[in-house]
Amino acid sequence: MNEQASRTEYTLCNATHTDLPLVDVVIVNSRGAEAKWFRQALSSAKEQTYAHLGVWVVYNNDHALSIGAARNLAARTSKAKWLLFLDDDDYMSIDLAAHLASTIEKLRNRPVPDEPNAVNDLSQLVMVTSGMTMVDDRDQVLSERQQYDNGVHGLTYLQMHHTGMYLREWLVANPADETLTRYVSTDMQRKAILHGKKMDRRSTWATSYHYGYHYRQHFGMISGEKLVRL
After folding, report:
1. Does domain 3-110+118-216 have CATH number 3.40.50.720?
2. Is the backbone of residue 61 left (phi > 0), alpha (psi -120 to 50) or beta?
3. Gap between the Cα atoms of 224 and 230, Å rounded
């Protein structure tokens, strides 16, 4: 892995409430700093309303790193509690980080039930995601029928989720697979699910909010990164 060939850039965008857990948005840029879609992704990350947020960009324009390796680099370098991954051709609504962070903290801070192996024991929660809205290469939202037709592996758009927000210390201990060229996010999600199954606890959570993450379908292709049933 040639980390020296890739440049990282960090911006602390909002430190209004430093008592809140720090969330870092991670974008792996493989399209070039001036690419329109990347600029849109970066702008949507920096405009998040969550009151303690930073943005990591891993510039990987020469493709020296795999997507997994670039994400792992950001995870090791970040000091945040949570990492929210955003692809460089997608974009977020301004409230997505706040929505996921508040969901995580609410779930993790619920009283642990007395019953052993209880399904609602969320003390091992390491990842939260949400639904997503598909858009085309002109930023037009696909109709519900189009989104249904573009579901993959039997999943409709209502069952598809973006990569998600991860507990950073868990991700450092359970890094993304650096050998994969596809399905990197799927593999990360599966590892998070397996973490909970090993301890008979639920370790992932998917909210029904479908308007926070905008997933761009372009050139008639789906990336194949969001195939896990959560």
Report:
1. no
2. alpha
3. 15
| Percent helix, percent strand, percent coil in the chain, to nearest 5 | 30, 20, 50
What's the distance, Cα to Cα, between the start and end of the chain in Å? 31
C-alpha closest to that of 58 among 82, 78, 80, 81: 78
- Contact status, residue 211 vs residue 190, Cβ threshold 8 Å: no
| pLDDT digit string, tens, across residues 110-155 | 666 555 555 566 778 899 999 888 887 777 776 665 655 655 545 5
Would you tell me the crossing angle of helices 184-198 and 67-77 to the nearest 10 degrees? 60
H/E stretch holding 214 reads strand 213-216
How far is it, in rounded angstroms, from Cα 216 to Cα 86? 11
Residues of the chain with pLDDT under 70: 1-5, 108, 110-121, 142-159, 218-230
C-alpha–C-alpha distance, residues 147 and 5, integer Å:
38
Q: How much is the mean pLDDT over the chain?
A: 83
CB 49 within 8 A of CB 106: no
Say if strands 91-92 and 213-216 run parallel, antiparallel, or are unpaired: antiparallel
